[in-house]
Amino acid sequence: MLGESFHCSSIIHAHSQSLTTETACNNGRPIDAQGRGHVIFSHYKYFDDCIDEALPKDDDWFTHQRISYVRYEGLWVPYPFQNNISMLPKDDQARCLDGVIDAALEARVATTKPKNFDEWIVRMMGEGIADIFMRPYNYKVWAVPTTKMQCEWLGERVAAPDVKLVVKNTVLGKVAGGWGPNATFRFPARDGTGGIWIAVADTLPKEKKRFGKKGTVTKVDAEKKIATMADGTTIGYNKLISTMNVDQLVERMGNQELVSLSKGLFYSSTHVIGVGIRGERPERIGDKCWLYFPEDNCPFYRATIFSNYSPYNQPQADVKLPTISIADGSKPSSSAPKGGPYWSIMLEVSQSSMKPVDEANILRDCIQGLINTDMIKPNDEIVSTYHRKFNHGYPTPSLEREGVLKQLLPKLEDLDIWSRGRFGSWRYEVGNQDHSFMLGVEAADNIATGAVELTLNYPDFVNTRKNTERRLNQGSLSSKKTGALPTRAKPN
């Protein structure tokens, strides 16, 4: 990203070329690990240009319609839940409608903004939907109560129900249509999400890249402007764009003021679980993409039918694999390898100081959860499993977040360090792959020309439009082109 604007620049990364996401392999087939089932959706033409340059062929991709459901009371309720209460049992329909109507009436006379995410939920959807879905589901995702989260991050992330449409659909028993920024999406044919970024990295000059553990930054001397690598190599810089977790960055800087400030940021960890199953994909699973689980009969909050994204995401039927266990925990009758077909599921489990997890038994608990939710049957044959914990999983939009970031990021910039990315700038609302990529691009533009960093400073602006001004075959945006938008004021 820096290569466009600077004659001398390098990309240093502690992991492989997959950069922001990582694809592990199990039995020779990809499992999106750090990608966690995330899919490509773009708010930016520049991002599209870069991806298309790296993977330009039609057969590099599969395009899918988003088919998502919420598991509730043994039912598959179409996503988003709050728009499809027509699918609930009658008692729950009545409870939710009561809340939706009360919320609509109260919203008409409200004179203050919601103080937190929980208040926003109740004001937008009512107590019924809050209790049945929004509170339990969001606790499973974020690993913090909704009362401890702010609501400025929401934007396009959460669908507010159309009261008239919800009532009409409930009376008529209709299902609401697809919603959201990724109602359709494309997925790489091969190598999972990490394969995208390997291909993007391959478009950059080899001498400007340094990947692997030897590229781990162990120390940053902000005064002398020197970064030290794990192998002892030192690199001097004039301006530094860091995509490290900002809390870890300031620790490696040894700046105690910034370390203390960063303690106000909160995050949750994510466990990624993969399960490979022998047999035809069940009809009850069908062409579903990803599924949501608010109830406490399983530890995971989301399941991705990873084998539906690409036929190359699982072994072909003629590949022979042994059964490592039966889903109910019993031993298989034979350890001899045998053929498929196969299908696979990827699960996500959150963890924090406010939501502990039994890490030693998490795989077993997840498989039991799959049985409890009728995703798999007790006698299904498990041919592969995968488990990895990502310490920094979600940057929490906590009540304290903005107060910290409005001090921390400018203080780093005063030291010529632009901390950007999912955990670099810690703003979940601009933490998807396209956002994270453009945060780096716009940081480079800002350094080179003074251009405003729209993604960092105006999340709602970039998330509610197709951003076409910046293109790969054009130069960086100057501050004149975005002069109508003020830069972020730094505190005195």
UniProtKB/TrEMBL annotation:
InterPro entries xrefs: FAD/NAD-bd_sf
SUPFAM superfamilies the record matches: Nucleotide-binding domain
Ranges for region Disordered: 469-492
Protein name as it appears in the record: Putative UDP-galactopyranose mutase
Organism in which the protein naturally occurs: Rosellinia necatrix (White root-rot fungus)
